[in-house]
Design brief:
Elements: H1 4-13, H2 18-21, H3 24-38, H4 42-52, E1 60-61, E2 68-69, H5 71-83, E3 90-91, H6 99-113, H7 117-136, E4 139-140, E5 145-146, H8 147-150, H9 155-171, H10 176-187, H11 195-199, H12 207-223, H13 239-244, H14 250-254, E6 266-267, H15 278-289, E7 297-304, H16 309-312, H17 316-319, H18 325-328, H19 332-341, H20 355-358, H21 361-367, E8 370-374, E9 388-394, E10 399-404, H22 417-428, H23 434-445
Parallel strand pairs: 7-8
Antiparallel strand pairs: 1-2, 3-6, 4-5, 7-9, 9-10
Helix pairs in contact: 1-7, 1-10, 3-5, 3-6, 3-22, 4-5, 5-6, 5-12, 6-7, 6-9, 6-12, 7-9, 9-10, 9-12, 10-12, 15-19, 19-21, 22-23
């Protein structure tokens, strides 16, 4: 049997089905909008300043960075921004976020090379597919859990570095063998731990940027003749052994390759929060639409799949008292509060995840009445969906239940074009002039007809406040 990277290299260098390609512009629109919104964050400014200090050639646009940078640095900045709001898409059941590294890496190289829109779309498509395929290699079907996650590894950045390398190498004109070498090099650059999900810190925001940067770097080095081991994934000392031990599902990586595109199972996020909270938000919104308000609730129990409790429900004291909007994004109790008290855009929006609202006394008082528990019955669905059940005991003694077993934004419940457009508009509002935002949205949506993507992101380099 051919080594995994040889098979993935052939995929990456080959044709992309039109049905797959057609969905790519919306992925790019989504990531660019998220990155624009994140450009005003302190961590984003720190990263942009760091990248600018590297003193490299001006090749590609760094959103909010104030200047063009080398493709590697632009990929880094845009990748950090893409993941900073926890608003980027998720593949299920691998539970990783593929677009936040692959799209920034692809955009940077495509802009640098002046690639046509279709070339960018195809590069993103193969990069996403390879990222999620490697993620599935770490998915334990029996335990219904990511082995990467169980071992504290961030599959998003580990697999994203390899997928980004494939996309970047394709845009640099590499053939299947050279793409395989780029991915093999990237295997030595893959990294990321998720302790920040549990204990805090902002380093997780860097992961997708570092993966995007690693992918572009690996592709550039492969183009200059650097090589990697053909068995860098499945070998005795390869990526899977290093990160997954003996728990890798090697067959899942190449099963039905080119016949079935896993990239079509990537879920958009309707809410700017950890994906484990989304069905809880939906259930709370449903409660509110039925006339239930915070003052009507004596107690509330949010039941979720057991593996997600540690992310959004433990330790419960901390989850009931998030100190920042970022911490609130990982809180089950806050998800219930946001669903009952918030409501902009797609139901709950960016305005609901601020530091001020995280500490709001009314929300804190409501969160104190919310418990988060695992329900083993939901494991029949998880992680192909991230289900939740919200049970409320009212102050009048009634019991109300809202159950949401499927996530919005996936193949079964897709977000409409108008919803995705509204998300982009919400993300760019106040940071990019309305006319510029509309033109960028139209240009990204119409990539298939673009003869070159050079300069496409130039209007996003400076936030509106810095434009002359």
């Amino acid at each position: 049997m051919k080594p995994i990277l040889s098979q993935l290299g052939e995929l990456a260098g080959g044709p992309v089905p039109e049905t797959v390609r057609a969905g790519i512009p919306s992925r790019i629109v989504d990531i660019v909008g998220i990155a624009v919104r994140a450009s005003s964050m302190d961590t984003s400014r720190a990263v942009a300043g760091f990248a600018a200090e590297q003193g490299s050639a001006a090749q590609a646009s760094a959103i909010g960075g104030g200047q063009t940078m080398a493709a590697t640095e632009a990929a880094f900045v845009n990748g950090v921004l893409a993941h900073s709001l926890d608003y980027d898409d998720t593949h299920l059941p691998s539970i990783l976020h593929p677009s936040a590294s692959v799209v920034p890496a692809s955009l940077a190289v495509a802009e640098w090379q002046g690639a046509p829109g279709k070339a960018l779309m195809d590069a993103v498509a193969v990069g996403l597919e390879i990222t999620v395929r490697l993620g599935l290699g770490g998915y334990d079907r029996r335990a219904r859990q990511s082995v990467y996650f169980e071992r504290g590894q961030h599959a998003t950045s580990i697999c994203g570095a390899v997928g980004s390398a494939a996309a970047a190498a394709r845009l640099l004109g590499a053939d299947a063998d050279a793409i395989a070498h780029a991915m093999a090099i990237a295997c030595s650059m893959s990294s990321g731990i998720i302790e920040a999900n549990r204990a805090g810190g902002t380093v997780k925001r860097l992961h997708c940027g570092w993966a995007a940067r690693a992918g572009v770097t690996a592709a550039q080095l492969a183009a200059r003749g650097i090589t990697g081991p053909p068995t860098a994934v499945e070998g005795r000392f390869g990526l899977f052994q290093a990160f997954l031990g003996d728990q890798a599902d090697i067959e899942a990586v190449t099963a039905d390759l080119r016949e079935r595109w896993e990239a079509e199972n990537i879920f958009y996020k309707p809410y700017p929060a950890n994906h484990f909270t989304h069905t809880g938000i939906d259930a709370a919104i449903a409660m509110r639409s039925n006339g239930v308000g915070p003052d009507d609730i004596a107690t509330a129990t949010l039941e979720v799949a057991p593996p997600t409790v540690r992310t959004i429900g433990e330790p419960i004291e901390a989850k009931r008292k998030p100190e920042t909007g970022y911490q609130a994004q990982f809180s089950g109790p806050y998800a219930v509060a946001a669903g009952l008290l918030g409501g902009e855009g797609l139901g709950v929006g960016l305005a609901d995840f601020t530091d001020e609202l995280a500490c709001d006394p009314r929300r804190r008082e409501l969160m104190a009445r919310v418990v988060v528990v695992g329900d083993p019955r939901l494991m029949d669905i998880y992680p192909c969906q991230l289900p939740a059940r919200l049970t409320v005991t009212t102050t009048s003694g009634h019991t109300l239940v809202e159950e949401r077993l499927a996530n919005r934004g996936g193949p079964d419940q897709p977000l409409s074009d108008s919803e995705l457009a509204a998300k982009f508009a919400d993300n760019t509002a106040g940071l990019v002039a309305d006319g510029v935002a509309r033109r960028t949205y139209d240009a990204l949506s119409g990539l298939a007809a673009a003869p070159s993507v050079a300069g496409l992101l130039a209007p996003m380099v400076d936030p509106i406040g810095k434009q002359p």
